[in-house]
Write a structure and sequence with these properties.
By secondary structure, the chain is α+β, with helices and mostly antiparallel strands. It has one domain (3-127): Winged helix-like DNA-binding domain superfamily/Winged helix DNA-binding domain (Arc Repressor Mutant, subunit A). The protein has 6 helices and 4 strands. A 4-stranded mixed beta sheet has the order 1-2-3-4. The longest helix is centred in the N-terminal third of the chain and has 23 residues, at 3-25.
């Protein structure tokens, strides 16, 4: 197995272990917030992206981008790759703290037809999700 594959496998194992720990310590209030965020994230269609702040706002948590990030880290089976960090007015970016996760996220987005620049940016004017309220 190549170094890159070993690194990806290790990163994914750590992510799964972290999710199990996060879910075990959630209180009732946090679970309620997380479920609202997860419900919004499930609505993001293939080929579209949303920012953490947008997901939080649609879940009824204005200014809750960090809460949305924590909820996405603690999720299983969600389209996590479609939720990105905001980078300016009309751009969003893939994960910057985890290079292996960023490569996986980029691959999943590109498989759905989303163009990700060399710098990891996505054009929200073109690929941003605009849900019907």
């Amino acid at each position: 197995m190549s170094y890159r594959l070993r690194a990806m496998a290790s990163s994914l194992r750590k992510r799964v272990a972290r999710k199990r720990t996060d879910q075990a310590v959630l209180g009732a209030h946090a679970r309620k917030l997380y479920k609202a965020i997860w419900a919004v994230a499930r609505r993001i269609p293939r080929g579209k992206v949303a920012t953490y702040g947008q997901v939080a706002e649609l879940a009824g948590i204005p200014g809750g981008a960090r809460v949305a990030g924590a909820a996405m880290r603690a999720s299983d089976g969600l389209p996590w790759h479609r939720v990105l960090g905001k980078r300016g007015r009309n751009r969003a970016g893939v994960a910057i703290l985890d290079p292996v996760g960023a490569a996986v996220q980029r691959g999943l987005l590109e498989a759905e037809g989303v163009v990700v620049t060399d710098r990891g940016l996505v054009d929200l004017d073109r690929y941003g999700w605009a849900p019907q309220r």
